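User: Fold this; tokens only.

Assistant: Input:
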Amino acid sequence: MAAEFSLRPDRFESTELLDALVTSVFVLDADLHIDYLNAAAQTLLGLGPNQALGRRITELARGAETLQPLFDRARSAGEGVVQREVSWPAPNGADRILDCAVTQVVIGQERPRTLLEIEDITQHRRLTRENALLAQLGGSRLMVRQLAHEIKNPLGGLRGAAQLLERELLDPALREYTRVIISEADRLTSLLDSMLGPGRPPAKQTVNVHELLERVYHLLRSEAAQGVSVTRDYDPSLPPLTVDPNHIIQAMLNLGRNALQALGGGGIDSPRLVLRTRAATNVSIGATRHRVVASIQFEDNGTGVLPEIRDTIFYPLVSGRADGTGLGLGIAQDLVSRHGGLIEFDSAPGRTVFTISLPLDVS
């Protein structure tokens, strides 16, 4: 920085220039107490100058604790050090991804200070990941259609065999089982027909997303292994969605069942799956920016997505389980994309969140 300034907060010059930066700038004393922070830094912390000045930065933000090694290296080496993609919990609870630079500075006759510069790359990283997911979608949709062709033939045979069996059964209670087989075969055939159709639009209707989620919730509860908790955390103010209910239910079931399978292997303390809804504002999906989207989250406390499949997890036949088909996530992404939405995920050991983002019709 070319501007010269005093290190006392009430004597800083060029504060207008520093406040205009999108980069967060902190000046810290030898004990990491904040001597100065610009407007972007105040936004990052969610605190004003009166609340932040004179306080140790590691007390104000949990993410700052991870920077302690950088502070130590900068002091010992006497030169700047950089750390990329630091996870920083934001005031609203959503993690931010930051690039951080730490430099020792001496201005005038003052004692050395630590200059901390932080660039928020959360949106850039999100857009990069989103573009990669959209690029995957084209290849995955072609593979799904090819697989759907292969599945339809044995599915028709299964339905026909169930019909023949039903005619031979005299006990009405046993016939109920064949009706379930026929009903499920018809449902899957309808789903496959939709996936194979030449770009036919979904059969959309206005629905309460929580009505769909309740159906998914009860199914997941019945399928959950013993000891696995399935809970709900809904935002009741979420407006109605205009979607094809069958498509969205299937997508949500695929995400929920994946999470249950991740929790069913044992060795996890208090395994749990949380179904959560929130409204997110100013979200870009592809080239379209939406003022409000419905954020439907499936959060589990399993071991997380394997690092080697994170970049290809939405491709068909990619699975982290030996007995997995690798179809569920690819199909879910395809179904959600037909509604102008997108599925993203964030995963670490102990916390994995798959999020469906669907545009809301808000006037």
